[in-house]
Specification:
The protein is α/β, with parallel strands linked by helices and 236 residues long. The protein contains ten helices and seven strands. Bound molecules: 2-acetamido-2-deoxy-beta-D-glucopyranose (4 copies) and zinc ion.
Length: 236
């Protein structure tokens, strides 16, 4: 298979051995037989998981994930599960969108009455066929979980750099660094960043910038206040 080389891959020559997990393809390309239009479809699904699971048009922690099987490259692929950040909802500080989705997929895959009915060990192995789409680059906790799960592919929208530039507190370790440091975990995970960032970025730009317009359906009740569901929409 032709592997795409980019400056990032070049940089890695000097640090770690180059493995498939550390190749960083151009998001516009067809990668693993999947065209950009399909990547965009699933990244939008990760965004949509927010409205579906939070029932708010402007959840503050707007981190959404969709986990998809497209080992069969015909068609769009098969959605296995979705997840969103559930810190607030559950009180569990580790339930970032990606962890929530991995947890949900495990439930879906092992549900004795569900579509898959896998044993626990089959469920663990199933992640090697799956692609995780997250609308923002994973923090090092989630990036590590993605490598422990052995996902086939990991695709993110907004970068940690963009989050930080827009006021989000973060642990300043990129997914690339986590992936580089996990080169001896197999299987490897193909890595794609900045996919449809033009559509994921707006989910993260209003929280710490009181002049930034609220998402549709929300408004600020006063100067500098948080975006909340508009009264008009609440009454609908
Ligand atoms: C993913 O798709 C492949 C090929 O279509 C199939 O063999 C595999 O069982 C699927 N995995 C899951 C978890 O659905
Ligand atoms: C789990 O994923 C399924 C399938 O996409 C979805 O219907 C369900 O609401 C999700 N549950 C949670 C708790 O996120
Ligand atoms: C975002 O960019 C992609 C191309 O990278 C394009 O297909 C899509 O229409 C753009 N979205 C918007 C809302 O402009
Ligand atoms: C909001 O407050 C900031 C300072 O706190 C001020 O610079 C800005 O002009 C105000 N905007 C409006 C619309 O009142
Ligand atoms: Zn995380």
């Amino acid at each position: 298979m032709h592997l795409v080389t980019l400056p990032v891959a070049l940089l890695l020559c000097f640090s770690q051995p180059i493995l498939s997990s550390t190749v960083f393809p151009d998001p516009a390309l067809t990668v693993n037989g999947i065209p950009f239009s399909t990547r965009a479809h699933w990244m939008r699904r990760a965004n949509e998981a927010l409205g579906e699971l939070t029932h708010s048009p402007c959840p503050f922690a707007a981190f959404g994930t969709a986990i998809v099987n497209h080992t069969d490259t015909n068609g769009l692929g098969d959605l296995i599960c979705i997840g969103v950040n559930q810190n607030r909802q559950t009180g569990n500080p580790a339930l970032h969108g990606e962890i929530a989705a991995i947890t949900n997929c495990t439930t879906v895959l092992t549900d004795p009455h569900g579509r898959f009915r896998l044993t626990t060990s089959e469920a663990q192995d199933a992640f090697a066929d799956l692609t995780l789409y997250t609308n923002a680059e994973s923090c090092p906790m989630c990036a590590s979980a993605i490598r422990w799960a052995g996902f086939r592919e990991y695709v993110y929208g907004t970068s940690i750099d963009t989050l930080v530039q827009n006021g989000w507190s973060q642990i300043h370790i990129s997914s690339l660094e986590v992936f580089q440091a996990s080169w001896d975990l197999s299987p490897q995970t193909l890595f794609m960043g900045d996919v449809l960032a033009n559509e994921t970025d707006p989910y993260f730009l209003w929280q710490f910038d009181p002049t930034y317009p609220c998402p549709d359906g929300c408004s600020r009740s006063g100067n500098g206040t948080r975006c909340r569901v508009s009264m008009r929409d609440e009454l609908k």
